[in-house]
Design brief:
The complex is a heterodimer of chains A (248) and B (246).
Chain A lengths: L1 E10 L2 E11 L4 E5 L6 H9 L6 E6 L2 E2 L5 H8 L2 E4 L11 H12 L4 H14 L15 H13 L5 E5 L7 H17 L3 E6 L2 H7 L2 E6 L2 E6 L3 H4 L3 H7 L3 H7 L1
Parallel strand pairs in A: 3-8, 3-9, 6-7, 7-8
Antiparallel strand pairs in A: 1-2, 1-4, 4-5, 9-10
Chain B lengths: L1 H16 L6 H16 L3 H22 L8 H41 L2 H7 L4 H38 L5 H9 L4 H27 L5 H31 L1
The complex binds adenosine-5'-triphosphate and magnesium ion.
C-alpha cells in the first residue's frame, strides 16, 4: 500500500497540491482524475519522488519514502515501474534493450534469462517481433506498450502510469487500459493511474481520487462516481456529450 | 547573482557526475560508444582543419621571415612550434566544442524534455553519472589522440607547401621541424587538450541537463554550450600557457 499523509507542494508562491491524504491499495487500479492543470502529474511525480513534497510524507508499505536520501530510496525504486506521458523510451536503445534496461541495472540474470524475460513481457503487451526496432520507428500505441513492458520487466510492486492512453484511438486505448488492469491483478501491484478519460475511469476505477483546485475533492469508485451529487465532480464527469446522454 | 547560482548548480551536478558508476560493465559499454561518437567520428574534420592550417602557417611564416640573414630552416621550426603549441590543441578544441559540445547538449537536453532523465531517476539510477561520465572520460581519453593526429597532419600540410612552392625546399623544412625539439611542448599541448575536453563536455552536459521546456530551449542550450565553452577555452588557454610555459 502507498499512503500519502497531508502532502502539499508549491512551485514558487503557487500552491499546486493542498494537504492531500490518500491511500492506494494493492491489486487495485487506483485512478487519479481531474481536469487538465489540476495537478495530477505533479501528484504522481511527488509520489515517486521526482518532486520533493514541501509538507507531509509518503509511505511505501510503511517505509517512509520522503525521509530517505537518493541512495536509500534505491531499494524502493527497484520495486517501482513508471509509465511516462510520452513513453520516455531511451533513444539509444532498441525495444529489446529498452525493456532489458532495468534487468541490466538491477539483476544478475544471465543474458539468456534476460532475453527470455524480455520476450515474455513483450508478449504480454502483444508486441512480438519488434525487438530490434528503435523508438523512432514505433507508433504511439507501440511506444506505450514498450514503456509498459519496461515498467513491468523487473516485477515491480508499484506501477505508476501518467495518462497511459492519451493520444491513442479508442480501441488501442481500451487495450492499454485492459492490459494495465490485468497485470495489476496478475502481479498484485499497487497501480496508480492518472487519467482524464472517462471511459477508462468507468472501466478500471477500483478506487478513484478526484483532484480539484489542488485538493483531494472526492474519493470513490467507478460505481459511486456516476451517482454522486458533488457539483465539481459532476461537472468533470458529465463534461462530454457521451456522458451527458448517459446521464439522461 | 545569477552567475553564482549557475556555478553552484554546475558544481553540484559535477559532484553527481563524478561518482562510481552503478554497473562497470554498462559504463564500459557506454564508454566505447562514446569513444566512437566523440573521437573516431571527429578524425575527418580534424584532418581537414589541420592540413590546411599547417599549410597556411608555413606560408605565412615563410613570407614573414623573408630575410636572407635568416636560415630557411627557421620556417619549418616555427611552423612546428606554432602547430604543436597552439594550433593543434586550441584550434582543434574549439572545433570540437562546436561539433561535440553541441551534439552532447542537444542529446542530453532532448532526453531531459522527453522525460528520459526522469525515467532513469525513477529507477534509482543517478542520471548525471550514467549519461555524462562516459562522455567525459571518452573525451579526456580521445581528444589528446585527436590532437596528436592533428599535429602530424598539420606538419604534413606544411611539408606540402615546401614540396609544391618555391618558398623553401623540402629538405629545409624537414630539417627545420626536427630542430630543437622539446618533448615538453607536446606534453603542454596534451594537458591543455585534456582540460579543454573537460570544459567542453561538462559545459555541454550541464547545459543539456538543466533544459526546461521544448525544442527551442534545447537549441538554445546547444548554442550556449558552444559560446560558453569556446570562451572558457580561450580563457583557460591564457591561464594554462602562463602557468606552464613561463
Ligand atoms: N515544474 C513546474 N514548475 C512550475 N509549475 C508547474 C510545474 N509542473 C507543473 N506546474 C503547474 O502545476 C499545475 C498542475 O500541473 P500538472 O501537470 O500536474 O497538471 P495535470 O493535472 O497533470 O494536467 P494534464 O491533464 O494536462 O496533464 C499547472 O498549473 C502547472 O502549470
Ligand atoms: Mg499531466
Amino acid at each position: 500500500m502507498i499512503e500519502a499523509f497531508n502532502i502539499s507542494k508549491y512551485f514558487g508562491d503557487k500552491q499546486i497540491l493542498n494537504n492531500i491524504s490518500v491511500q492506494f491499495e494493492k491489486g487495485k487500479n487506483n485512478l487519479i482524475i481531474g481536469q487538465s492543470g489540476a495537478g495530477k502529474t505533479v501528484l504522481l511525480k511527488c509520489l515517486v519522488g521526482l518532486y520533493e513534497v514541501d509538507e507531509g510524507h509518503i509511505d511505501f508499505d510503511d517505509r517512509n519514502f520522503s525521509s530517505l536520501s537518493f541512495k536509500k530510496r534505491r531499494s524502493i525504486r527497484k520495486e517501482l515501474g513508471m509509465l511516462f506521458q510520452g513513453g520516455a523510451l531511451f533513444d539509444y536503445y532498441d525495444v529489446e534493450n529498452n525493456v532489458m534496461f532495468p534487468l541490466n541495472m538491477f539483476t544478475d540474470m544471465t543474458e539468456e534469462e534476460k532475453i527470455h524475460r524480455v520476450n515474455e513481457v513483450l508478449k504480454r503487451v502483444n508486441l512480438e517481433n519488434a525487438n530490434k526496432k528503435f523508438p523512432g520507428e514505433l507508433s504511439g500505441g507501440m511506444i506505450k506498450r514498450v514503456a509498459i513492458a519496461r515498467a513491468i520487466a523487473n516485477n515491480p510492486k508499484y506501477l505508476f502510469c501518467d495518462e497511459p492512453n492519451s493520444g491513442l484511438d479508442p480501441k488501442t486505448s481500451n487495450l492499454i487500459d485492459e492490459l494495465i488492469a490485468e497485470i495489476t491483478v496478475e502481479y498484485n501491484m499497487v497501480t496508480i493511474v492518472n487519467s482524464h478519460d472517462m471511459n477508462s475511469v468507468l472501466k478500471m476505477g477500483d478506487h478513484i481520487s478526484f483532484i480539484h483546485d489542488g485538493k483531494l475533492w472526492w474519493q470513490g469508485n467507478k460505481d459511486t462516481i456516476l451517482v454522486d451529487e458533488n457539483p465539481e465532480l459532476n461537472a468533470f464527469v458529465f463534461a462530454t456529450e457521451l456522458t451527458k446522454r448517459i446521464k439522461k | 547573482m545569477n552567475l553564482i547560482k549557475h556555478i553552484g548548480t554546475y558544481l553540484l551536478l559535477m559532484r553527481q557526475v563524478l561518482t562510481k558508476p552503478d554497473r562497470w560493465r554498462i559504463f564500459f559499454k557506454r564508454l566505447v560508444t562514446e569513444l566512437y561518437a566523440i573521437g573516431v567520428d571527429s578524425f575527418g574534420i580534424v584532418a581537414i582543419i589541420s592540413l590546411f592550417t599547417g599549410a597556411v602557417v608555413a606560408i605565412q611564416v615563410a613570407y614573414n621571415i623573408d630575410n636572407p640573414l635568416l636560415p630557411k630552416t627557421l620556417i619549418g621550426f616555427s611552423t612546428r612550434q606554432m602547430i604543436v603549441l597552439e594550433f593543434a590543441p586550441t584550434m582543434v578544441s574549439l572545433i570540437l566544442a562546436g561539433k561535440v559540445g553541441s551534439a552532447i547538449a542537444s542529446e542530453i537536453g532532448t532526453m531531459r524534455i522527453t522525460e528520459q532523465i526522469d525515467a532513469l531517476e525513477i529507477m534509482g539510477i543517478n542520471p548525471a553519472n550514467f549519461l555524462i561520465l562516459p562522455k567525459l572520460v571518452a573525451a579526456v581519453l580521445i581528444n589528446p589522440a585527436l590532437i596528436i593526429f592533428g599535429m602530424y597532419i598539420g606538419i604534413i600540410g606544411g611539408y606540402l607547401v615546401a614540396a609544391f612552392t618555391n618558398l623553401l625546399t623540402p629538405a629545409d623544412y624537414i630539417y627545420g621541424i626536427q630542430l630543437d625539439f622539446e618533448n615538453f611542448t607536446v606534453f603542454y599541448a596534451l594537458i591543455k587538450t585534456a582540460v579543454f575536453a573537460v570544459l567542453i563536455v561538462s559545459m555541454a552536459g550541464f547545459q543539456g541537463y538543466i533544459v526546461k521546456g521544448g525544442s527551442i530551449q534545447v537549441g538554445k542550450a546547444s548554442t550556449r554550450t558552444v559560446v560558453y565553452s569556446s570562451v572558457l577555452i580561450i580563457l583557460f588557454n591564457l591561464v594554462l600557457t602562463q602557468l606552464l610555459l613561463t
